[in-house]
């Protein structure tokens, strides 16, 4: 799938004036992709979207796509550390051994999330909300409502 399009990813989330108020990288893990059996790193993200607490897993390449979509939709808004995302992705050794770059990428992605949430227009965008909202297509994540009830996204 290409990006986080509104029609595909937002169908399961509440409508209204929501914003990604905070996003925190909670860790990373290696996952095997079947049927080919190769391994990639996913980053666990905890986000507060409006009154909801969400947990989702995203690959580094998905952050790159997120940034590209935000740049197209909001060309006047800049995220200061964004250039470093591209530099990290282009590193040849990261493609050969992604696990070697996890710590540096966690710090970079945390900074990116912090800066994205600081831009009100970006944080309120359907693009950002869809990215941090758990995906039913992926079968990942958890949503905690303000009353404390939980729902797994499957």
Question: What tags apply to this protein structure?
Answer:
154 residues; alpha+beta; five-stranded antiparallel β-sheet; 7 helices; globular; disordered N terminus
Structure explained in plain terms:
The structure is a single chain. With 154 residues, the protein is an alpha+beta fold. It is built from seven helices and five strands; from the N terminus they run αβββααααααββ. The chain has a five-stranded antiparallel beta sheet. β4 and β5 form a beta hairpin. Mean pLDDT is 80; it is low at 1-11.
What's the helix and strand layout?
Blueprint: H1 6-9, E1 20-33, E2 38-49, E3 52-58, H2 60-73, H3 82-90, H4 92-96, H5 102-118, H6 120-124, H7 126-132, E4 142-144, E5 150-152
Antiparallel strand pairs: 1-2, 2-3, 3-4, 4-5
Helix pairs in contact: 2-3, 3-5
Sum this structure up briefly.
40% of the residues lie in helices and 25% in strands.
Please provide the ordered H/E string of secondary-structure elements. HEEEHHHHHHEE
List segments where confidence is low: pLDDT < 50 over at least 5 consecutive residues: 1-11
| Spatial order of strands in the largest sheet | 1-2-3-4-5
Number of strands: 5
Q: How large is the count of helical segments? A: 7
Distance between the termini: 18 Å
**Average of per-residue pLDDT values:** 80
Helix content class: 25-40%
The whole-angstrom Rg is 15 Å
Largest sheet: 5 strands, antiparallel
């Amino acid at each position: 799938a290409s990006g986080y399009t509104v029609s595909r990813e937002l169908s399961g989330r509440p409508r209204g004036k929501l914003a990604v108020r905070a996003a925190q990288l909670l860790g990373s893990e290696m996952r095997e992709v079947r049927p080919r059996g190769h391994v990639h790193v996913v980053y666990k993200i905890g986000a507060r979207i409006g009154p909801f607490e969400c947990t989702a897993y995203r690959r580094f390449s998905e952050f790159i796509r997120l940034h590209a979509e935000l740049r197209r939709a909001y060309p006047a808004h800049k995220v200061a550390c964004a250039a470093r995302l591209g530099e990290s992705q282009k590193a040849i050794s990261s493609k050969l051994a992604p696990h070697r770059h996890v710590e540096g990428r966690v710090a970079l992605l945390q900074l990116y999330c912090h800066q994205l949430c600081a831009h009100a227009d970006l944080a309120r965008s359907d693009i950002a909300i869809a990215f941090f909202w758990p995906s039913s297509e992926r079968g990942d994540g958890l949503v905690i409502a303000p009353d404390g009830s939980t729902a797994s996204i499957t």
